[in-house]
Amino acid sequence: MSTLLNRLQELVAGSTVPYLSFNRDIVDKVGRTTGLLVATYVVTTASRTLPIYHFIRAYSAFFGPLSKYPGPFLAKLFDWGDGYYDSPAGTRYLKLMELHKKYGHIVRIAQNKLSISDKDMIQQILVTDDLPKGHNYEAYQIDGHPTMFDTTDKTFHKSRRRIVSPAFSLRYIGTMEPLMRTATANLDGVITKSINEANAEGREYAKVDLWMMLQHFAMDIIGLAAFGTEFNMVTTGHHPLTTIISNRLKFTSFIGLHPKISRWIPKSQDPYLVNFMKDVIQRRIDSGEKRQDILDYLIGTLNTKSEDDRLKIDDIINEVVLFLIAGSETTSNTMGFLFMEMLNNPHVYEKLRNEIDAIEMEEGQTMLQNNQVKALPYLNAVIEEALRLHPANPGGALRRTVNDITLVGKHHIPKNTTVIAMSMATQTHPDYWEEADRFMPERWLDPAEAKENAMAWFPFSAGSRNCIGKAFSLQEMRICVSNLVKRFEFLPIESSMEDAKDRRQFITLGIAKNTFKVRAVLRT
Ligand code: HEM
Q1: Residue 211 carries which DSSP code?
Q2: Residue 425 contacts by C-beta under 8 Å, 6 or more apart in sequence?
Q3: Where does heme bind (predicted)?
Q4: 150 CA distance to ligand 1 centroid (A)?
Q5: pTM
Q6: Which end of the chain, N or C, is less packed with Cβ atoms under 10 Å?
Q7: Annotated binding site
Q8: Are 446 and 384 spatial neighbours (Cβ–Cβ below 8 Å)?
């Protein structure tokens, strides 16, 4: 085999073909790439030696039901994982954007995979047909134990979601406002301290890493709400649990893109984390203390009468770890992008500040409360627009067909196809949005326009697998953003604004350098 490959490389690289040697470098690269592709093809199919397999594969590539969908030529032949498009790491969603620009609303990105940016098709995939999640999500499971997020089994999901949902109801989230205000007050304290220190040194403003501070803030909130623990990330910058989970996250984002490799990698929950959580849960049970938080609700399910409504301690641990992964960077990065957009669009910043400054404070009241900000039209519009242009999961949600389906009555998709509801491409598509790439919160102020584009905006996904933490994160963002806008003036730092243009998605959309510094001045 290697002789054959060497011969092939030699041939293409030109050493035995004089007329090809005029641009050795390019030819050499082509040779290596071809060799690699042939090798990959041969290795991945070596185990499938039956000739019929190759016949079916070739048939499916060029004549099968997916052959009519456009896409890169090689995508017809290979059933590669999404990792193929992720070079450099974190840019898969940008590659898919380019492919949608080139090929349209439906793109065949692998032999058995379509990426879709048509809002009506997405409505059908996520809501009407409510297709199950793709098998790649199983790569995230720890020791084969599924959570609400990574299960692909509809029955398991329905049951787990039913048990956990009350902890995310609007009423229950309302009772968690004090936790969110505590974390916001800590954030305010740290920024104020930086400004006071800068003033004492004769500087008008402090340079603060708003991005990192918001990430720490969101971790603190999940710490308080789901782990029953003060992570103190905002004040100290580290906690062993968040370090363990952040490291897991990096690993997770890799295996999510390479699900075929993942099945060979053993995954288990970190023993420190398990013991820590068991200890927190046991202490809560022993003390009989009642708290208004997610953990308390989950602990309450340990002893419910019906087995169907019961969680085990390990289930609780796996679910709360998931909340930290799914609920912290998603929320903090959305707020980071929101502030970045306001610094790029000072008129938006001013309009929001005016709306917030108009709220009357009670005597002695120092912080804005949820009931004062939850229905502010412009604040909500700014958040919705930030979620449109910077969805936490820009590369989209993967679903799979379990039967043949026909999308919007026209497009036949066979059983066992993976379909991606590609959020970034849909949420910035000129078919649906005027001046699609501009940050224009005003577009959300007209209810008719907002309604028309309902399914072209799905940053929290939709259907039965939509984000359970949507209301939680919206409440957190409204409280945090309104209070920061009221208390501080943030001003851009040019180099930081420039660096922040380099975006990457590792699970969640972020900035490549994971930092975004601004100048901060006290307003009140
Ligand atoms: C701006 C903030 C957030 C955004 C944009 C967001 C976005 C999403 C999206 C797009 C999904 C579907 C993912 C998929 O199908 O692959 C999802 C699911 C999920 N999110 Fe969020 N999320 C946010 C905040 C939160 C928070 C605060 C929590 C918890 C505290 C949370 C917990 C979850 C869970 C548990 C799921 C899985 C739900 C299921 O499959 O039933 N999220 N989120």
Answers
A1: H
A2: 96, 97, 100, 115, 117, 396
A3: 467
A4: 11
A5: 0.89
A6: C
A7: 467
A8: no
Query: Based on C-alpha coordinates, what's the Rg of the chain?
Result: 25
Closest by CA to 65, choosing from 456, 413, 492, is 413
Q: State how far the Cα of 398 lies from the Cα of 137, in Å rounded to an integer.
A: 8
**Spatial separation of the C-alpha atoms in residues 320 and 451, rounded to whole Å:** 34
Structure tokens given for 383: 């958040």
**Pick from 147, 180, 166, 146: nearest CA to 298:** 166
| Cα 255 to Cα 348: distance, rounded to the nearest angstrom | 39
At 72, the amino acid letter reads P
Measured from the Cα of 160, ligand 1's closest atom is: 41
Residue 431: which residues within 8 A CB-CB, separation 6 or more?
A: none
Neighbouring CB atoms inside 10 A of 364's CB total 5
Is 461 close to ligand 1, i.e. is its CB under 6 Å away?
yes
Taking residue 383's Cβ as centre, other Cβ atoms within 10 Å add up to 22
> Is residue 259 reached through a cis peptide bond, with omega within 30 degrees of 0 on the bond before it?
no
Q: For residue 160, which amino acid is it?
A: R
518 lines ligand 1 (CB under 6 A): no
* Planar angle of CA 138, 412, 85, nearest 5 degrees: 45
Contacts of 412 (CB under 8 A, 6+ apart): 65, 404, 405, 406
pLDDT of residue 40: 55
CA of 201 from ligand 1 middle (Å) equals: 43
Q: Which of 338, 467, 468 to mutate to test the pocket of ligand 1 (most atoms within 8 A of CB)?
A: 467
Pairing of β 418-421 and β 106-110: unpaired
pLDDT profile of the chain (524 residues), mean per 10? 40 33 47 57 55 68 90 90 88 97 98 97 98 89 88 95 97 96 97 98 97 96 94 93 80 72 74 89 88 93 89 93 92 98 98 98 95 98 98 96 97 97 98 96 90 90 98 98 98 98 94 96 90
E strand or H helix at 342: helix 329-344
Q: Check residue 23 and give its pLDDT.
A: 46
Q: What is the pLDDT of residue 258?
A: 72
Query: CB burial class (10 A; 0-12, 13-18, 19+) of residue 502?
Result: exposed
pLDDT score of 248:
77
3-state DSSP call for residue 488? strand
* Whether residue 60 has its Cβ less than 6 Å from ligand 1: no
DSSP letters along 363-427, please? Answer: TT--S--HHHHTT-HHHHHHHHHHHHHS-SSTT-EEEE-SS-EEETTTEEE-TT-EEEE-HHHHH
